[in-house]
Design brief:
Elements (H helix, E strand, L loop, with lengths): L8 E6 L8 H10 L3 E6 L9 H8 L18 H7 L2 E7 L1 H9 L5 H8 L4 E5 L3 H5 L1 H12 L3 E2 L4 E3 L5 E3 L1
Protein name: Phosphopantothenoylcysteine decarboxylase/phosphopantothenate-cysteine ligase
GO molecular function: FMN binding; ligase activity; phosphopantothenoylcysteine decarboxylase activity
Keywords: Ligase
Length: 166
Amino acid sequence: MANILKGKKIVLGITGSIAAYKACYIIRGLIKRGAEVQVVITPAGKEFITPITLSALTSKPVISEFFAQRDGTWNSHVDLGLWADAMLIAPATASTIGKMANGVADNMLITTYLSAKAPVFVAPAMDLDMYAHPSTQKNLDTLRSYGNHIIEPATGELASHLVGKG
């Protein structure tokens, strides 16, 4: 069987969820299968996992701002959106899902999403009541209507110690 990820360029969007640590496993899996991974992380995502960890795994600088802090270099969300063969947002918080559904372009991840020409995969990660809330479900339906692929969350123990889908 041919490896469909070999040589593919993947933008991995990481948001401010306790599930952000799982991005390390996603990165390792994608790279092991031959993909090139570029991480774009939201400001809240950096509260849960450090860019240093992610950069060490991808061998690439992590992008989180429009301008690089060290030298002021412009990080072009348009170029990044065109570069990608696929975009995966994992974990995707309710906030990020809402911004994606409504075009709220207030961070590098959302502007990259809005510029992407490649297939987009969204993996929601939040508490079960947040996930089940009608506004979250409406936003997910909107993303589906745009052609995005939603990766449904598994059922299990959540960070809140509740058990459910989220």
